[in-house]
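The data are quoted verbatim for reference:
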Amino acid sequence: MADQLDKEKMDAKLAAHNSDLSFAEGYKSFQNCCNTLSTSIAEAGPTLKLKIEGIGKGYSHPVVYKNNIYVTGLKSDTLDFISAYKMTGELLWSKPYARAWANTYPDSRSTPTIENDRIYLIGGMGVVVCLDANTGDIIWSQDAHKQFHGEYNKWGLAESALLTDKAVTYVTGGEETSVVAFDKITGKLLWKTKSLGGPRAYCSSQLIDWNGSKMILAQTAYDLMGINPDNGEMLWNYNIVQFHKGESGKGGITLTPVFHNGEIFTNSGYDHPALMFTLAKDGRSVTLKWKNDIFDTHHGGVVLIDGNLYGSNMQDLTKGKWVSVNWETGKTNWEKDWITKGSIISADGMLYCYEERSGHVALVQPDTGDFKLISSFKVSGGEGAYWAHPAIYNGNLYIRHGNVLLIYDIKA
């Protein structure tokens, strides 16, 4: 999580170069050029197939599993809920699973991780939970924050569970351990790492494969680390906060690492530079390859396409620009205005940008020369910050705004 938008300072005006094309007209224009996208989208924008209200307040995004939609949300003053819906929008069940974050902006953060009819979630106060995907009943629960004396960051936590072959992992932060792993089936503790100290980050861990061996990439607010998923051995760690030009550690890390061809990219907001690391062949160390002082993503993720990174940066709590950086060199391709910063995903060779100020979604052609806006539309419904990441499944675009889920048809 990051700071709530200052609503009184929001600028309702769009950037001067914002496209005048409707979303549908933009699709047609791009289709005529590249002959890849449909012209059948309605003139007002993509067809809204389904609108589900009352999902609970949250910043997580939905997932689809066995043709059902699962999404978390705050439905009481103190509890995180998970709800299951049919693809037609009919509610199957809704169950509380843990206490919500008890301080500022308590909306649910954790996106469900589902495997073999089991849902794995992390509650707002650091409880790791396994539930039955068919009923929502809790199978096991571990108060990992309390057990291992974890350390919250300023805005709580925003981690989604990582699964390995045997375990579900969780970043505690604190002085006892940095990361713990529970048996996926029983909830029994399998291992815990040594502690590197400091609070947890605002991101999730990642499982990578390097030279035939698996490795967990995890982060606290201060350190990036590589962990053996079988026993919790800390293979290497690198202090990241040393590069922070702002309030040391307070911003935390807001981006899950991006791994590609033996290199690891990570960045964060609050004047923290983007960093690229090269992983040693034996997986026992990393070296800093480059840093980029422009690409400080507040939250919203980044995308790697054809050797270039795309995302947004942070000018202050409510403002940011869109950025492209070359993966190999760290050189900034461009830094451009489009309303403000936000989330980004990619599908079928295109970028989908969801700005956080007023809820516009842009279809953007990846390009190293410019922010090539094809078209945009504004989502309707919901309330609060537009912080949830978009998701695409089976030709449908899933957009969450607070307690409302919107599903648009974007099939070719």
Summary: DSSP finds two helices and 32 strands in the chain.
